[in-house]
Amino acid sequence: MKLELVPSKLGGSIVIPPSKSLAHRGIIAASLAEGTSKITNLNFSNDIKVTTNAMKSLGVDVEIFDDYEIIHGKEKLIRKNSIIDCGESGSTIRFMIPISLLADGEVTFTGEGKLPTRPLGVFHKIFDEQGIAYKHGENELPLTINGKLKSGRFEVRGDISSQFITGLLYTLPKLDGESEIIITTKLESVGYIDLTLDILDRFGIKIINENYERFIIPGNQKYKAHDYRVEGDFSQVAFWLVAGILNDGIDCLGMNPNSLQGDKAIIEILRDMGAKVTVEEDRISVEGSSTYGTTIDLSQCPDLGPIITVLASLSEGETRIVNSSRLRIKESDRITSMTTELN
Question: What is the phi/psi pair of residue 251, to 5°?
Fold first, then answer.
């Protein structure tokens, strides 16, 4: 087959893939609920596959179809496989470590790529405080844990990763007794915590949020089976919106304008840079636009860093990107990657 590529400007419309962040959360919540739930509009990336397999290793039955899963959740988890491979997914490992301690017996977490070097110290501190046995090699993975998490008071930094907090928020409602999570620094990526709290509420779990500084979690709660459709991903739509701005515009379909996703900040960031952005019921559209530099705070939306850097390089004037240090501890050092490529 001969394929000929002809240079042209981007235009038209596209259906944006579903949010990976919400897919993780929906699959896990359904797995913890006794009964059957259907999670639709899934894109089976490697990260979603490893999260699904992690729940199956804890005794959950999952039927997988082209773009959805039917999940037969379990109120009581059992350890069917003592090894949980998290691939390269930081969400999977940080969500699943506390959840896995709901089941009896030893468990070992593995991973690949940069995942074995990504920090897990928040959990090490909890294990030490609660007398939970664990061991790991030179890097964080493989990590072997043996013990059961107990309810109580958990002090967690808010400036490393909200994923640690989400893992605890999923787990603590199922323990005997009330728990509280105290956030000891300013909480970054608040939007991801909002996603967690929204999904938990949909599946019947109640959390008391005291201004994102303290979370009170009543114990002995039960997840309730619930059908859930994953909405379009604002992390991914950002790339298409920037491409549209640099070309002849684009319509991005399948989006929720009322989304709690933190990366929805892309809309106001683009407008602040002079782009023409239109938001409708299920779509976000941009026109080809000339943009200019501004100051952009990534503390609540770090995943927007790479594509914003691209637009900034093609905008008039200076753009300052601040509070972006967490980009260094993602799947790659994204700050170094972007400066290297653009230079």
Answer: -105, 125
Residue 162 sits in the same domain as residue 268 = no
Same domain, 198 and 265: no
According to DSSP, the β-strands at 214-217 and 208-210 are antiparallel
Residue 141 and residue 242 in one domain: no
Tokens of 92: 């999977």
Nearest to 323 by CA among 185, 181, 165: 185
83: left (phi over 0), alpha (psi -120 to 50) or beta: beta
Calpha distance 50→44 (Å, rounded): 10
Q: ω into residue 116 within 30 of 0, thus cis?
A: no
The CATH number of the domain holding residue 176 is 3.65.10.10
Q: Provide the pairing of β-strand 107-110 with 223-224.
A: unpaired
Residue positions annotated with a catalytic role: 303
DSSP code at position 222: -
Assess whether pLDDT exceeds 90 at residue 5.
Answer: no
pLDDT digits (tens, 9 = 90+) for 137-194: 899 999 999 999 999 999 999 998 999 999 999 999 999 999 999 999 999 889 999 9
In whole angstroms, what is the distance from residue 279 CA to residue 13 CA? 14
Tell me which residue of 304, 288, 284 sits closest to 296, measured CA to CA: 304
Q: What's 116's DSSP letter?
A: G
> Of 160, 181, 216, which residue constitutes the final position of a domain?
216
pLDDT at residue 272 greater than cutoff 80: yes
Q: What is the DSSP string of 273-336?
A: TT--EEE-SSEEEE-----B--EEE-TT-GGGHHHHHHHHHTSBS--EEES-GGGGGSSS-HHH
- How many separate domains does the chain show? 2
